Structure of TRAP transporter small permease:
Amino acid sequence: MKKISIFFTGFVNMAMAGSLAMMFCLVIGNVILRYVFNSGITWSEEVSRFLFILLSFLGAIIALKNNEHLSVDTVLRRLPSMIRKIVNGFSILIMLYILYILFDGSVKMTIQNITTLAPATGISMAFIFGIGILTSIGMAIILISNLFKTFIKIDIPKKKDNQNLSNNSPTGDEVVVK
């Protein structure tokens, strides 16, 4: 599961970096063409806008995975451990419901706009609304994983090499306590 998470994060980060690089090249290239050659690429603004949408939604997925969204946890930190888990689980369920609404709306908008084409590029607007589908699925997977992590803690023994033994165990096994 950890390898899948690392691959997923790396893939999304690469897609974000690629989107940002393409946006930069298109915008700078268009500015240079307009001011130096008095012409421009007609579709560059539209593609840049689409890439910005993709970048924003992918960034939201990574921010959720890294727990970097804004939160006010002043009260939550003062609650007892069990109540904190229940409140955290309830908030995850609320977020899953909101993601269901995003997914449902994105599916409806994607189906409705399959035949609608972007004016400059001719790209189906279904691709743009489909980003909401991918985002809601990606975020739901992360939230379901977080829900399991909230209520199910598994202690896995770690094997350490003989040079870094922190206890006097002859096997080097150490139980991780959470």
Residues 1-69 form one domain. The longest helix spans residues 2-36. The mean pLDDT is 85. The helical segments are 2-36, 44-65, 74-78, 81-112, 125-151.
